[in-house]
Amino acid sequence: MNKDVNVDALFLGPKSENRVFYKEMMEYAITEHMHWRSGFHPEDSALVTPHCQYQPDFRDTLYRTEDILRDLSSRLKTKSVPWFSPRYLGHMNADTLMVSHLAYVMTMMYNQNNCAVEASPVTTDLELEAGRDLCQMFGYDVGKSWGHITSGGTVANYEGIWVARNLKSMPLAMAHHDGAKDLVAGLTEQQLLNMKTSDVLDLTDELKKRGIFEQVRELSARGVGVEPGKLGKFLVPRSKHYSWMKAMDILGLGQEHIVPLDVDSNYRTDVKKMREITFRLMEEGTPILGMVSVVGTTEEGSVDAVHEVVKLRQECEDKYGSSFYIHVDAAYGGYVRSMFLDEESQFMDYDALVDSYRSKEIIPEGVVWPKRDVYDAFQAMSEADSITVDPHKVGYIPYSAGAVAMKDSRIVDLISYHAAYVFEESDEQDVGDKPVMLGSSIMEGSKAGSTAAAVWAAHRLVPLNISGYGHVIGRGIVTADWFTNKLATAEPFVVQGRSFEVRPLMHPDFHMVNFTFKELGNDSLADHNSLNQRVYERCSYASGRAYSKDFLTSSTSLTVDEYGDTPSIYVRERGFDVQEWETEGSVYILRSAVMTTFLRDEVRFSQYWNNLRDIFTQILTEIVDEENKKSLSHSAA
């Protein structure tokens, strides 16, 4: 049984509190590598001799190396964002795991390239093992699924739609190949374009047995391309990441074939409208290439109702005989699923989960998490065909480390550039372990093996369950709940006779907190947006030396173009009338991912909040002073 991790022992710390251990392990990593070099054929003589090392140009080269590194260090310390500090609450970033730093550095010196196994004899295995970890976390059958590391969520999303495109076109390809026509005989084109993922993959197994898989595959979108609109519509929430627009462009599917799904007041996909759109397309006979659910929207951290998407697909299969591909974009929130798993990686019953949170002191009394619909969404992720997840977000692993997991490993043959294999079903055969040359099976080519080592090492130290990542992620969730409640009940900030009220956009689904300041008595949305933009400018890297800032956050605009009329709900709650929204069409918000693990203490958080109130007061004072100076200047003119 796994032991619960001590979270404070996982990070270097905001004040480098664990510096002694960190330096020891860093020295160990470097020393071991130097021993490895000197031990390789020790009979070989040294090629860089002492005589060479004492030459003036040799010493000068070392001095210039030192100068460059000192210059780099100065630039990094001057302009870098201090993710490690609790004063930073912005993008999905925080202090990262020491074990991942050390594993990355240790492996980096061996310069392994996971494109080809001969260039990465160690780290290819580590990547595949890390991929299996993620598949298990998502509830996939580890022996039949497939996962690997990418450069980030964008590439992982590309791969999700890449396999969906090729899968959707395979039945049509079979209908055009003499040796495969009998497999789809009697099916209309509409039926061919709406087959279940598992049914298509079962047919590809038959193609492999007949020895014609590669021939048929070349008649699919992979070989002959895509006729515009032929494969149908791609349904994506308005809360989508911009990578989906890029993916439709890059893969030749066309952005005009994206159907946006409206979001509700919690910025989750509106289930009622999603169902209406889906059934309308079914009635029209329009194929659905795929549907995306977002688990952790980039701007609000919202969790779509994945369970409702799975239910909807089943209804379409039962009523219309039509199915569609489901991809979950959990780049942000994917690792949160570990919080629902026991030490045997089993998804826990809701009541047992809450009891375990209390007994392990992960989620205290007074913090209600997860909401029941969030719980249901995470549970249903195991039914998705593929999932994007970013270890470099809530996995607390350094950049760049994205990942994609696919429920059925057979789907990889639709995109791979190596020979397809047939694996018979048996207890002994592990489909997920079939021979794979990574570079031939993924979108990227050369890729750092050190990234795979960083992810692998993190998973070994911090298990993907309630006793591991549950403690790490839980700290941010609790702090975000406290932060939201403080914002929701905060007394106005009074500056030179003017009052400013701060309020959250909504209660978060896990730890993204959005909020805005409003001057009481000023019902201009344009002024509200300007105020919050000016607050952000004083709390961001944009205004100079980020390292010296008292508080750092991020921001975004919720616009009518992106979100339709949904942001108007918050606008009205803040006291602005409909005309203001119709005129502006946008609301500017401050956006804080509360990922820090160092504020999960009520006394410490209370002190933090009091300090933050002082900082906000000072920022608002600066803004008011600036406005007064401008007013005096205009009066004088």
TrEMBL record:
Positions of modified residues (N6-(pyridoxal phosphate)lysine): K393
Record keyword Transit peptide present: no
Keyword Lyase: yes
Any GO MF annotation of the entry: carboxy-lyase activity
GO BP annotation list: carboxylic acid metabolic process
Cofactor dependence: pyridoxal 5'-phosphate
Occurrences of domain L-tyrosine decarboxylase C-terminal (ranges): 489-617
Key words of the record: Lyase, Pyridoxal phosphate
PROSITE patterns for this protein: DDC_GAD_HDC_YDC (PS00392)
InterPro entries: GrpII_AminoAcid_Decarb (IPR050477), PyrdxlP-dep_de-COase (IPR002129), PyrdxlP-dep_Trfase (IPR015424), PyrdxlP-dep_Trfase_major (IPR015421), Pyridoxal-P_BS (IPR021115), TyrDC_C (IPR049373)
SUPFAM superfamilies reported for this sequence: PLP-dependent transferases
Name of this chain's protein: Tyrosine decarboxylase
Record organism: Photobacterium proteolyticum
